[in-house]
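Two folds, back to back.
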Amino acid sequence: MASLKEVKIRINSVSSTRKITSAMKLVASSKLHKAQAAIESMRPYQQRLDNIMSRFVSELEGESSSPYAAKRQVAKAVVVCVSSNSSLCGAFNSNVIKATTQVIDTLHNSGAEVEVLPIGVKIADKMKRLDFEFKSNNSSLLDHTKYADVAVLADDLMRRFEQKEIDKVVIVYNHFKNTASQIVTTETFLPVQLDTKSGVVENKDGMALDYIIEPTKAEIVDTLIPKVLSLKLYTAVLDSLAAEHSARVVAMQTATDNADELLHELTLMYNKTRQAAITAELLDIVGASFQ
């Protein structure tokens, strides 16, 4: 049985750890509130913009075409993977890493050359260990997320795709469903899917909306597609940030609960050890009195 001093040291250590995990949970909760508000306000805007573009495409005469919708034999692909810059968020990063490696293996098996574009320190470190080379880990996009910065990255991917330097772009990130659930999502960023069979935009009464377009629907679509793609990447980054903070809240809550349970066990052990020591001293006193 451990001595009273050893048990006391463990109790103090666990108490200090519990204070840290509890504080980190509060910080993560505050960040989650802001990130959740950002993604919940952005997601409907992106979805409505997608619907408007689909509506225009469905009404275009003849075959709908765009340089960003060209489907080619995939000789070179880019995998954009979004993780976090720090740890202590449960399986958040490991799930993204696992999904990214699966996408890379699938592309390699199809004969494509794969380039990795990481967003986040954790995924960048893993990809370096897998011998992938890249110019930056783009960690600043997570520290200070701004649409203009993400749009620069999206514009570069669209430019390379249009110039046939790359043939496919895939995004891998964690989708924020709710505080307790994050879903690893894999989406094709390029080529863009022009769904000409859907896209009817309705108002709140269920009536189909119509628009007066100037100059033409074709020109509007050509302008909308880059906008939609930039927003898609920006929304993925915001989604991943909300999922990261929610995963950290859950992880820190679990750690705090485990610390409470361990403190209860250690306190019980400390009391038993102290009682055993007191009993032993009393026995020694009683035994000495009979001598």
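---
second:
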Amino acid sequence: MWETFIDSIGISVHLREVIGIIGTLLVSASLCMKRIKGLRIVNLIGSAIFICYGLLISSPSILLLNGFAIIVNAYYLLQIKYETNRTDLFDIRFIDSLEDDELQRFVRFHGDDMRHFVPSFNPDLKTGTLVDAECCFILRETLPVSLVAYKRGEDEEITIVMDYVVNAYRDFKNAQFFFSNVVNRIAGPGSVFLAKGEVKEHTNYLKRMGFIETGKEGKISYFRKAV
């Protein structure tokens, strides 16, 4: 009866297969994603499309499997939302020296990815970008997931030379924690943060975090944010 109804509304076998292929591609793509939140969202959408496919071909097994997948994904997405809104999951650790073992391991491991977002970044801790900079880790559930390095200038200006977050935690919560809970510990009233965007991803990130573009030189955009 159901198949007769599907045929009556003009959904061809070819269109059904196209829907199934779209669901397959989305679920497959989700399994290749590194960010857990993105994986869950794409997998949920793919499962929802598979439910449509299961209805079209009258397959209880597809309906049950993907219905269960939607419930699981929705549960974990709600859990992620709850956990990322908890400020008690975050903490700050100021780094006393560039000889700090954890800092050296972090830069050594993530150096190439840092240069992806800041091509001018020199990871050499003896002669590179972080020399004379103050550094801190943003901790998330005790894990160092973000490195912020800045240099103080004149007139209450603070230049951010590195603001890097490891791939799995790029949900903007680390930066929000920094600017809402850490800034008052390193900067006084009327201070201005300066930054530059060398690639589109970093430029978009700065704009999202409330930085205002003040100029451009070639491919480099300059930003400032008053606190």
